[in-house]
Design goal:
heterodimer, A: alpha/beta, Rossmann fold, 2 domains, six-stranded mixed beta sheet, 22 helices, B: mainly alpha
Chain lengths: ~625, ~270
């Protein structure tokens, strides 16, 4: 049944050639000639075939246990699994970069140990930085076809074709280091296409991108898949399931579940996944008898369908469609607390801040212009905006790492010190956690790592141990970690240790740049709880984030920057309507839905919270 | 990302006669120019070399500020050389000794900067992979002695490609450690060296991890060393390359003769 439906789909896709364009007159040698025709390989030959694959790095510990998988040509398969489930190893085996300890792997009917498979299967990894070989875009795309020994005119054709496919043709002679994250991942995809691959293996290709980059890459992937390429994608994001022909859940090296994308939602919770809010809303609607299918090609179209379904169900006159100005988004206790009584004294007050890079050179770039904001003591401010909007520069001012060029910043009513011992004291009072802080770890043990900051600030020896233990406890790690080597911990644990290494100096304010980026759901949750705990303990928290869910759910105030200019600032409630001006794909799905309903004048609260929206809609 | 200051020796993609010159010619001519600049220690010779540098930069359409900026780390060294030469030459003598020392110090710095600027012109005007191709071609005669010409050239080009990335990472780690109270600018040399460990260790960890990831990514794209590899745009030696090479070599010879006969009064 399943293979049948896949077959129909692939045939439609193959109307266009999945491989690079045919180039009559150019003689092709060996495997490349075959690679060009694999798009029309016999239906009987699966694109990917794993049979009883076992893998172990040390001979004992089995990372993969008797894994079998058959992927038909043109299918789009998603593999879900937690950290440590064996996903990365599976990716290497599928990409013919690692031979299984036992079992066999065939790509388009070719054994993966044969060098010829590299013209058929390509892998794109998570980190866009470390898979680009060429300093110039077109040089990088040419790398794989050059390795295959193709003639120059053929390479040139493939480069142009692949760059056009990912929409980077206009940047072909740009420096690859000057591309945005999303563009770098598109470049990596172009490199894979230029190799002539008909199977793409993707290892969380959007995990390290901002929402804009993610949308870019997702669109390109949709397009690549539509032209017949087989895609196997490992992912953390449940929203991806909307795009899947088939979903497989990997757990401890074995398949825990496999089936069609739309069937996944019924079992997701029993497999330990938390349902995306949009799916929760969809199911409540279905239960109320609103006709709604969970079969959709993207979460975007699903969100639109949900809105239409709600509007249709409200259509009988008198039910909704009231044109009174919508009001009253969510009011929660923390906002009431923030609004009631005299406002707390500001911890930071930023006034008319300007900043430029490469001042007074032809390369001068404005980063911040005329930015003002207030951070009341004991509250949590989220700074939002696209990449390059000046968020990181703004927060690096707060502990004096960036010198003020023009404007002023007050801390506790005093001008922010810019030099001398007062500046050092400022850095102790305001802890700054950089993006992926885990890379700054350097000590042989966690204990020494956490003692680094208090020692630097001249904390008395006898106090240090207590501080180290308190800091470790506050990030939720037990004392067993003290003697462990920070470099050998998992990525999420390393980040917690890095945050603890700032907390051990006991700062009154913690400033974090993208604290949840690149973490899986369980560690994201731990970071959120940690920051909430700090705020409850009376600390001031400032985060720069792309995680709008976290910003809306947990922080008190928002500051939205766009190209260095303040778009809006204030309590969540006050800024919510302004947020809707942002591109819809960047907003949390529930806020998209609620925003669209709001615009249609439906009497429902403007909110990001699924429970509240359901209550408002009487579901 | 677009905001990062230019890293040392980072390629500037422009279209100019210097950019279009064959990398083999550029490598060869650079060596010749460095040989000409190195022995120059008088005002007229250095003035000529400086003029030639300005001419080449103009021809390469590089903004002068960009060249200086991309050599920023060396400017401190230049300043140090200047002060050192000045003090050593002066030795507490009179005004004329100071004047003389000033002259020597100026020449020393001028020569140092000329060498650096000429050398940095090569990576600024040549894409790393092209540079690697050129280097591989020039080194290939040594292959018969078992010298890994392709591998060396590929390593060079990958290293060049990683410079901007590592500059960025280093900058971030320095800021992060300073935020944790690290004092990188105090104490004697030993103390400073020790204070730099918190920067160096993470940087090395990053380099190792990146190297591992990149090696895997290269393998995934079918890289198996130089054997059987072709080029998107193979190096083609043009007439203009021959012309430019002959012209520069003649100019260097003229320069050498000028130094030998006019400045040093040698008689034929």
């Amino acid at each position: 049944m399943e293979t049948e439906s896949v077959g129909v789909q692939t045939q439609g896709g193959r109307a266009r050639s999945p491989g690079p364009p045919e180039t009559p007159g150019v003689a092709l040698s060996g495997c490349q000639g075959e690679a060009k025709h694999t798009g029309r390989m016999p239906e009987s030959d699966p694109a990917i075939l794993l049979r009883g694959v076992d893998f172990s790095y040390d001979g004992g510990n089995r990372v993969l246990k008797k894994i079998s998988l058959e992927v038909a040509g043109g299918e789009r398969v998603f593999i879900l699994g937690r950290n440590g489930s064996g996903k990365s190893t599976l990716v290497k085996i599928l990409g013919a970069l690692q031979s299984p300890s036992q079992g066999a792997c065939f790509i388009c009917g070719i054994d993966a140990s044969d060098a010829a498979v590299h013209g058929k299967v390509s892998v794109v990894f998570q980190n866009p930085e470390s898979q680009i070989v060429g300093a110039v875009v077109e040089d990088d795309v040419a790398f794989a076809p050059e390795n295959q020994g193709l003639p120059s005119p053929e390479i040139e054709k493939r480069v142009s074709w692949a760059l056009e496919k990912v929409g980077l043709l206009h940047k072909r002679s740009a420096l690859s280091s000057a591309l945005s994250g999303g563009e770098k991942q598109r470049l990596a995809l172009a490199g894979a296409l230029a190799a002539g691959s008909v199977c793409l293996i993707l290892d969380e290709p959007v995990a390290m991108l901002d929402s804009e980059g993610r949308v870019e890459v997702e669109n390109v992937l949709r397009d690549i898949h539509a032209s017949g390429t087989t895609i196997v994608q490992v992912t953390h994001r449940l929203e991806d399931v909307f795009e899947a022909d088939r979903v497989l859940v990997l757990s401890r090296g074995m398949w825990a579940w496999q089936g069609r994308g739309e069937d996944f939602w019924d079992v997701a919770e029993s497999l330990g996944f938390e349902l995306p809010p949009l799916v929760v809303l969809g199911r409540r609607l279905s239960r109320k008898g609103v006709p709604l299918s969970l079969c959709h090609r993207s979460s975007q179209t699903f969100a639109q369908n949900v809105v239409h379904a709600i509007l249709d169900s409200l259509s009988p006159p008198g039910q909704g469609g009231v044109d009174e100005p919508p009001r009253s988004p969510r009011s929660s206790e923390r906002e009431e607390a923030a609004d009631a009584g005299p406002p707390p004294s500001p911890f930071f007050e930023v006034r008319r801040l300007h900043y430029s890079f490469n001042v007074s050179t032809p390369l001068e770039t404005k980063v911040l212009s005329d930015v003002s904001c207030i951070v009341p003591a004991g509250t949590w401010l989220s700074v939002l905006g696209r990449t390059g909007s000046g968020k990181s520069t703004l927060i690096q001012h707060l502990n004096g790492i960036c010198r003020i060029q023009s404007g002023e910043i007050l801390i506790g009513g005093q001008a922010l010190p810019q030099s001398g011992s007062e500046l050092r004291d400022l850095r102790r009072r305001v802890g700054l956690v950089f993006q992926s802080p885990e890379v700054q770890l350097f000590s042989p043990t966690v204990r020494e790592e956490l003692a680094f900051a208090p020692k630097n600030w001249g904390c008395p020896e006898e106090e240090i141990d207590a501080r180290v233990e308190r800091a470790l406890e506050s990030v939720g790690l037990d004392m067993g970690y003290l003697e462990r080597n920070p470099l050998l911990l998992s990525g999420g644990e390393r980040r917690l240790v890095a945050i603890a290494s700032i907390l051990s100096a006991d700062p009154g304010c913690l400033v974090l740049d993208e604290p949840t980026a690149g973490l899986d759901a369980s560690f994201r949750k731990r970071i959120k709880e940690l920051l909430q705990g700090l705020r409850r303990a009376g600390k001031t928290v400032v985060t720069v984030t792309h995680d709008l869910d976290m910003a809306l759910e947990h922080s008190d105030r928002l500051l939205v920057l766009d190209r260095g200019v303040r778009m809006c600032e204030g309590s969540i409630r006050a800024t919510l309507p302004a947020l809707l001006e942002m591109e819809a794909s960047m907003l949390p799905e529930i806020l998209q839905v609620s925003g669209m309903l709001w615009r249609h004048g439906v009497k429902a609260p403007l909110t990001w919270n699924v429970e509240e929206l359901c209550r408002g809609l009487g579901l | 990302m677009a905001f990062t200051p230019i890293a040392m020796g980072q390629y500037v993609p422009l279209k100019s006669p210097v950019h279009q010159l064959d990398p083999r010619a550029k490598l060869f001519l650079l060596v010749a120019v460095l040989f000409a600049v190195f022995p120059s220690n008088d005002f007229p010779s250095l003035a000529l070399c400086t003029l030639a540098l300005f001419g080449t930069v103009k021809l390469a359409r590089l903004p002068g500020g960009m060249l200086v900026r991309s050599c920023r780390p060396v400017l401190f060294l230049a300043l140090f050389t200047f002060v050192f030469n000045l003090l050593a030459g002066w030795g507490g003598g009179g005004f004329s000794a100071l004047l003389h020392a000033l002259g020597t110090a100026f020449l020393a710095v001028n020569r140092l900067l000329l060498l650096v600027f000429w050398a940095v012109l090569l990576p600024l005007t040549t894409a790393p992979l092209e540079l690697a191709d050129g280097m591989e071609a020039l080194l290939s005669p040594f292959r018969r002695f078992g010298f890994p010409a392709h591998e060396c050239a590929m390593m060079m080009s990958v290293a060049l490609r990683f410079i901007p990335l590592l500059t960025e990472e280093a900058d971030r780690i320095v800021k992060a450690q300073v935020s944790r109270g690290a004092r990188l600018d105090q104490g004697n040399l030993v103390q400073r060296a020790i204070a730099f460990f918190p920067v160096l260790i993470p940087l090395f960890v990053i380099i190792f991890r990146r190297a591992e990831e990149l090696a895997l990514a290269m393998e995934a794209r079918g890289y198996r060393g130089g054997v059987g590899r072709t080029r998107r745009s193979p190096l083609v030696w043009k007439k203009s390359d021959t012309g430019a090479t002959i012209f520069v070599m003649l100019a260097i010879c003229a320069f050498a003769l000028f130094r030998m006969f006019v400045l040093h009064g040698a008689t034929p």
